[in-house]
Design goal:
homodimer; alpha+beta
Chain lengths: 181, 181
């Protein structure tokens, strides 16, 4: 048995939508008692730390409905059904920024909210981007604006909470570490 | 109007539970078309980067039902209704690790999954912990095991994906940057 495993004895699917599925699992706890867990299923996502030839970080600003405000983030998006993370990362980079690359390096992956959701973000890095010759269209209900930021500009935006999400915060620490090497 | 704002003209609450609420918002997009957004409301959370006097990172291992496996993470937990993040951070540190502190420094905050959820994590730091004289009980349906890790041990666990969540990945980069200073 896995450590502290919680065995499911009943699953109720509350909602199954375009992006998330919500299940309520009834579980048996390690001490034999029972509890309920609210669980969000998500297809997973990718994000790309992309640097332009002059060392600027490629970001996009977009409206984030759950927060009712715009955030500046590194390009990212969710996996289509059956899509490999690498393919998705390249697609999102092209759609959201108009850049492409031949060298996309996998850095790491992490779960964003392991307490209630299974969303995983696969994080990639490239410092070799070139502009696409022809623009690629993204999702028709997605509106994003490209930004290219020095690390200092990005850190200033973080102070102002215009950059305010986990993957972009991680990206800024990663770049700071690289620079200090 | 906020940049790229999406105006809600209808909200349907699908589920309102102990931790999450799921709403479907019907929205008008910046180009006048309409779309639907699946939105998870979450009370918000805290996490603590806590170092023992000998410089080890205080972590807890716990079963994460959404992933059906145990993860090793920095201590964390969700805000109770009306609870201040600082109070919550101290409470979670005490409940999950048996340590307390008089010096809890706010580092930053970030949204974990801005595409579909409003969960925010408030991140704190302390390198001055002392063991509690009397153990404080945490949630009755929560089972955690304390671990104290050197940065090298934690990085090894990250390679093995036993450490595999955004806030702890951020914490390891933060500590690496501190050490390299």
């Amino acid at each position: 048995m896995k450590k502290f495993e919680e065995k499911t004895y009943h699953t109720e699917t509350i909602y199954s939508g375009k992006i998330v599925e919500l299940n309520i699992d009834s579980v048996t706890l390690p001490d034999g008692n029972t509890s309920k867990r609210e669980l969000i299923k998500h297809p997973g996502a990718v994000a790309v730390i992309a640097l332009t030839p002059d060392g600027k970080l490629v970001c996009v600003e977009q409206y984030r409905k759950p927060l009712e405000k715009s955030l500046v983030e590194i390009p990212a998006g969710k996996l289509e059904e059956g899509e490999a993370p690498y393919t998705c990362a390249l697609r999102e980079l092209e759609e959201e920024t108009g850049y492409t690359t031949k060298h996309l390096q996998k850095l790491t992956s992490f779960y964003t909210s392991p307490g209630f959701a299974d969303e995983i973000v696969h994080l990639y890095f490239t410092d070799e981007v070139t502009p696409l010759e022809e623009k690629v269209d993204g999702d028709e209900d997605e509106f994003v604006e490209l930004m290219e930021l020095t690390l200092e500009e990005a850190e200033q935006m973080e102070k102002e909470q215009r950059i305010h999400d986990a993957k972009t915060a991680y990206a800024l620490l990663f770049l700071k570490l690289q620079r200090d090497k």
